[in-house]
Design a protein that fits this description.
Layout: H1 2-16, H2 24-42, H3 46-68, H4 72-85, H5 87-101, E1 106-110, E2 117-121, E3 126-130, E4 137-141
Length: 142
């Protein structure tokens, strides 16, 4: 059995050689496929199910086309365009994740002068904060 699995793995690696494979856009398309599939399962209206099914089929077709494509430069350019379009959203998620991870040790305050967000260690009591951007000073309890 192990020999068969190793052989299948080798055949798959050989098949994918020279093909584009997975990237961020394909992962996004895969997530879209999962969401549409779950919606299709949950929504009982036949016409909506049909539309979701068509959309799902289209999404998975595009994903497979991109993954199996041999035109690597074009797929790479598409991925860069996707990353450029979603940079703001991804940045917001990254910042919020950092704030969530820091919640035990730090508090975040907005500067009343310029709106810059300032990170201050927790447990210091009443502190005077100087904004690194506009040098405005304000007091907060941490």
């Amino acid at each position: 059995m192990r020999n068969l699995m190793a052989k299948l793995g080798d055949n798959m690696r050989r098949f994918m050689m020279g093909r584009y494979g997975m990237d961020d856009l394909n992962r996004f398309l895969y997530g879209t496929f999962i969401v549409l599939f779950l919606l299709e399962l949950l929504i009982p209206i036949a016409r909506v199910k049909m539309v979701l099914n068509i959309a799902n089929t289209l999404v998975i077709f595009i994903e497979l086309f991109r993954m199996l494509s041999r035109n690597i430069s074009k797929r790479y350019a598409e991925n860069l365009k996707f990353l450029d379009l979603t940079a703001g959203i991804r940045r917001a998620f990254r910042i919020n994740k950092k704030k969530f991870d820091d919640r035990k040790d730090y508090r975040y305050f907005k500067c009343p002068g310029c709106g810059q967000e300032v990170r201050v260690p927790k447990g210091k009591g009443h502190v005077r904060i100087t904004c690194p951007k506009c040098r405005a000073s304000f007091e907060k309890k941490v």
